[in-house]
From TrEMBL:
Span of domain Cytochrome c: 30-128
PROSITE patterns in alphabetical order: CYTC (PS51007)
Transmembrane segment boundaries: 157-174, 212-234
A GO molecular-function annotation: metal ion binding
Protein name: Quinol:cytochrome C oxidoreductase
UniProt-annotated stretches for the region Disordered: 125-147
Keywords per UniProt: Heme, Iron, Membrane, Metal-binding, Signal, Transmembrane, Transmembrane helix
Low complexity compositional bias, start-end: 137-147
Iron keyword on record: yes
Species, as recorded: Chryseobacterium flavum
Domain of life: Bacteria
Length: 452
């Protein structure tokens, strides 16, 4: 009996040790929440939990490597820290994985500690449940009670308005009935004698008033035509639909992507070109679905995922095989900003030479709506736009006004040396401005600067 109890006790201890070892092996000795942060910072460029990107899916990777290669968590530590060295050592399973995934060399992570790797593996074994996403249409529960009285008040206002309109209609009917009776009486006979019976009589009686009215109408008509002519080609607020939906608010606003990462020629070229689809694929080769928290009203995650698939169709990318098929579909973008052929405008001149001067001038004129990058001075706050629109008039007068009010940065080394004599001359010529030099003073209003 005593020996059986001892045997039973030893069995329980063995089972406990086995369970603790198993839990440790499968990544449960790490912190999944911290592992999620590390995973997003280091792994998401090439891996996802539930699908292949550049590398294999990592959900349950600890168990998978044990089943496939007969290796343990220590092997994963070596692979993550320096897979190249592990392959060079002749490790069979490491070289099999390298061959299986098109000999794509994984980045090494010597900066990750053993605890960091344990946390990442804990996350891949048991990822925490995702937090519910907030949409722009989400209404706090507490607002429901407040909305009910507001709806009741609105209903009361509508009812009162309808009753007032009904009363007004009754009053009009009564007055019309009185007029009909008046027309049937003898009191109207005297009025009929003095009534104007023809346009000629009316003109003779009121010709001075008529001529004045015609003159006013002619002036207003001329002004209307002139104003209409002056606004031909001005499309402020124009925001056409594009073949692929692209939200600048998500890319430039939520994700803080620099404008010039996509519009690279805006800084060093005359024209800020539309980025090629290959530029999109620099990121979207590994980002095949939208997992951001921001959702535009009326759009859901499935909508954004569908637009990413359009990028793949345009570039001929097969996300399952992680390779290009060679079958591409050109995208016909609708251009928004388009200068006339007779206008010369150089982006680099404004973005490089005039960057700080334009930002300072804009912020001085708009203290409550300041900008941090020069692009926004002309294109508006792009990082808040879901659909890009033309934010300004882009007329000749608009450009001239900017040249007249934007002060040239004379602390710039080039300007300070090149315009040295001009600077001294303008100080004497415009003493009331303290010698400030605006763009118009250095030729910004010369016709040949902007027109061929």
């Amino acid at each position: 009996m005593i020996s059986w109890r001892k045997h039973y006790k030893k069995t329980l201890i063995a089972i406990g040790l086995l369970l603790s070892t198993s839990a440790s092996f499968y990544g449960q000795d790490g912190d999944p929440k911290n592992g999620e942060k590390l995973f997003k910072a280091n792994c998401t460029a090439c891996h996802a939990l539930d699908k292949q990107v550049i590398g294999p899916p990592l959900k349950g990777v600890v168990e998978r490597v044990k089943t496939e290669g007969g290796v343990d968590k220590d092997w994963l530590h070596k692979w993550i820290k320096d897979n190249k060295a592990l392959r060079a050592s002749g490790d069979k399973y490491a070289n099999e994985i390298f061959e299986k995934y098109n000999k794509t060399e994984m980045q090494v992570f010597p900066n990750l500690s053993d605890k960091d790797i344990d946390d990442i593996l804990a996350f891949t074994t048991n990822p925490p449940a995702p937090e519910p996403e907030k949409t722009a249409e989400t209404t706090p529960a507490g607002d429901t009670a407040a909305a009910a009285p507001a709806d009741k008040t609105t209903t009361n206002i509508v009812i009162i308005s309808l009753l007032a309109i009904a009363g007004l209609l009754v009053w009009i009917l009564v007055k019309l009935r009185q007029l009909v009776k008046l027309g049937q009486s003898e009191d109207l006979a005297g009025l009929n004698e003095s009534r104007v019976r023809s346009f000629k009589e009316m003109y003779e009686k009121f010709h001075y008033i008529g001529k004045a009215a015609l003159a006013i109408l002619a002036i207003l008509a001329a002004y209307g035509v002139w104003n209409w002519l002056m606004w031909i080609g001005v499309y402020k607020g124009y925001k056409p639909e594009q073949p692929i939906y692209f939200s600048h608010k998500i890319h430039a606003g939520e994700n803080k992507i620099d404008c010039q990462l996509c519009h690279s020629s805006a800084k060093y070229g005359k024209v800020s070109e539309i980025p090629s689809m290959n530029v999109c694929m620099n990121c979207h080769r590994t980002i095949s679905e939208y997992n951001g928290k921001y959702l535009e009203p009326g759009k859901d995650k499935a909508f954004y995922d569908g637009e990413i698939q359009k990028i793949y169709a345009a570039t001929g990318w097969d996300p399952a095989k992680q390779q290009y098929t060679g079958k591409t579909q050109p995208v016909e973008w609708t251009r928004i900003h388009n200068m006339p052929d007779f206008v010369y405008f150089n982006h680099s001149q404004h973005v490089v030479a005039g960057e700080q001067a334009i930002i300072n001038s804009f912020n001085k004129k708009n203290p409550n709506n300041k900008i941090d990058v020069v692009c926004k001075a002309c294109h508006g706050k792009i990082d808040t736009m879901n659909v890009v629109q033309m934010a300004n008039d882009f007329t000749m007068g608009w450009c001239i006004e900017c040249h007249r009010t934007t002060e040239v940065d004379m602390n710039n080394g080039y300007n300070k040396e090149y315009f040295k004599n001009l600077h001294d001359k303008l100080k004497k010529q415009y003493p009331q401005d303290g010698g400030k030099i605006t763009v118009d003073a250095i030729g910004g209003l010369e016709c040949g600067k902007c027109h061929y």
